[in-house]
Amino acid sequence: MTSAPISNGTAIPLSEVPALPFPDFQEFIVEACGDDHRLVALFAGQDLEGFAVLASGAGPVLRVVRTTIPAAGFPSITPRCPEAHLFEREIAEQRGLKIFGHPWFKPVRYHRALGTPRDAWDRTAPIQPGVAPFYRVEGRQVHEVGVGPVHAGVIEPGHFRFQCSGETVFNLEIALGYQHRGIERTLAGGPHRSTLKHMETASGDTTIGHLWAHCLAMEGLLDLEVPLRANLIRAVALELERLANHTGDLGAIAGDVGFLPTMSYCGRLRGDWLNMTAALCGSRLGRDLLKPGGVRFDVDAARVEDLRGRLEATAADTLNAVDLIWHTPSVLARLEGTGRVIPAQAKNIGLVGPAGRACGLDRDVRRAHPFGPFQEAAIPGVNEDMGDVAARARVRAQEIQSSVEFLRWALDVLRALPPGPIEVQAPRALPPDHLALGMTEGWRGEVVHLAVTDGDGRFSRYKIVDPSFHNWTGLALALRGEEISDFPLCNKSFNLSYCGFDL
Amino acid sequence: MLKILASRLRQGHRTNAFPEEVPPMPDRFRGLPELPGEPCPGGCRACVDACPTEAIGEGPRITLDLGRCLFCTACTDACPEHTLRFTDEFRLATRAREDLLAAPGEAYRVAGALEAKALALFGRSLKLRVVSAGGCNGCEVDVNVLGTIGWDLGRFGIQVVASPRHADAVLICGPVTRNMELALAKTLAATPDPKLVIAVGACAISGGPYRDQEEQLCGAVGAGIPVDLFIPGCPPHPLTILDGLLRLLDRVK
Ligand code: SF4
Ligand code: SF4
């Protein structure tokens, strides 16, 4: 028994999680990933307690192991298990540990280590984001293009460094960390009064996805049974979040190839989806709707009717607007073959969400580790395999269809449900020395929250993995061999979160 | 092509008519708070204790700092007397930081127009450079939506531009993380004078939900940047943002 099983939305005592000697811990990860597993999370706590969580395609149960990480640093497993690359860099940065033999050993978010004077890069000067050697291609024809952190438009900050020959991109390196506001650092010792807000704003366009993952972890710790009514309302909000963002993304993709009809309609329709979320809770982003134990706003019969009507109207207009893409050869010609991520590479780096599904990776938390109503309502799988902009667009279009169908079902169930409670009271105290897992399928992909409690029932460590953490590397790979002028299009086709990555 | 034309007919004209008409707001929308005029019985301070951002002032009477408020209703949920509530008043932007303090029995001092000289410069054309400085991308979502055909910000001569050199105003979202401090300073320096600064969202005004974090500077205000227009909310509704911008330009009274 080298690992403990853990399911989405449950907690287990730490004593049940096997503590492996560090070399065995690393071998376990490498072997499992070489097999049919993938790395869902790898992280270190304050006292250098290390955890790894792995999922397989075989069933809903995940596996967790722990270890004690050597303070003197350790050899990297990234060469043998590429999907660990950023997790290892993150451990180095947060805990001030050196990692030997890592192929690209750089900071992740550009901050000092947490609660230790150690520094993985022996930096003494104040830390500035993006200040570290970038990958360079040498040669007389090669030139370098730097973009950001401040971008043209209304976009979060990040720095993009391209190595080009003429128009052709040899390599893109992405430096983030500008949005770093210390969410994980603050969560240690929590939950605090600000915790729910920090969860909602970990990535503010994924308010429901993140807060639901947090609620799942908390409800696992407290062993709460959330009323069906509340879970249905949560699921309605989650799918509305997906619809708003997928619609916006398809509009933005159309806009970047100069196809104004779809761009204009989708821009407006995105707002209509957001306004449906506002009908649930007053906030277009779904703020303050969820809380551990349930939801804060009920949806009565009249509201179900209203939403049902708006669903049909908005869905029909959205499908009509998106459909234009597939019937306009000049648009398709720009999307097909552009920004390709090869499926084998996608698997290696651990792509998730629509970007992964566009490469044939059938990864969807709603299907693989179902939570709430997704345990009953099966979400159809969508798998493209070209891994290009067109495939990422097609996946979104198909998911718009399936989300609409899900909402029809969920609202009908909600309508038939007799009035009842929308929350169970959550006790204040968390159980000591437990590990809890909450996962949702946000619109960008897998959202993972892991809570570890100490002997007093406070968080000793709280780990958040936004899907963007895995997927930014996918964007960098998609640009290889592309024209630099296609960067905006490729970028929109991923539409990743900066703040969700930077935390 | 025919499909595109058919779709054009179907999708119709959808720009809302603000400011002539106010588009319908969701019934659960939370705007300007209504505060109890009397001191609360038994020295109750349930709302003060519930607030995640210390937005509620402790005096004999309750005041509420909209520059910190996240409109989360933790306070109204906690209030045993139900005397504290949020109205649907979306006109919340102000010209001064202290005007964001809502107090019982006092009229809220919503933003007035720019002074005549500045109005002559910017009144008919205002180009914005947006700097996202460490927030959650929520404020960006609702600034962005103003550019869509639903709102069509361009009809007021307001536009987001791709260079600070072309900008009349810098619109700041986010609490200004230490990692964005330099980039924001450089953007401000690169924007020609005279320029305006607009702070959108609780983060940019006070640090919002991150106000206790050492990784940030408590917004444009905390970073010592003079602000000409404060737009509160987490995030502010697009209507609140647009109303604020139009007030500044003397396009609504
Ligand atoms: S609504 Fe505003 S004042 Fe009330 S608790 Fe939330 S942040 Fe504090
Ligand atoms: S004010 Fe609220 S919505 Fe705006 S950036 Fe800050 S946390 Fe996000």
TrEMBL record, chain A:
InterPro entries: ComplexI_49kDa-like, NADH_Q_OxRdtase_suD, NADH_quin_OxRdtase_su_C/D-like, NiFe-Hase_large. Pfam families: Complex1_49kDa. Residues 256-433, 434-497 form the NADH-quinone oxidoreductase subunit D domain. Keywords: Oxidoreductase. It comes from the Bacteria. One of its GO terms (molecular function) is quinone binding. This is Hydrogenase. The gene is ehrL.
TrEMBL record, chain B:
It comes from the Bacteria. Residues 31-56, 60-89 form the 4Fe-4S ferredoxin-type domain. Keywords: 4Fe-4S, Iron, Iron-sulfur, Metal-binding. Pfam families: Fer4_7, Oxidored_q6. One of its GO terms (molecular function) is metal ion binding. SUPFAM superfamilies: 4Fe-4S ferredoxins, HydA/Nqo6-like. Transmembrane segments: none annotated. Its cofactor is [4Fe-4S] cluster. InterPro entries: 4Fe4S_Fe-S-bd, 4Fe4S_Fe_S_CS, Complex_I_20kDa-like, NADH_UbQ_OxRdtase-like_20kDa. Belongs to the complex I 20 kDa subunit family. This is Hydrogenase. It comes from Mesoterricola silvestris.
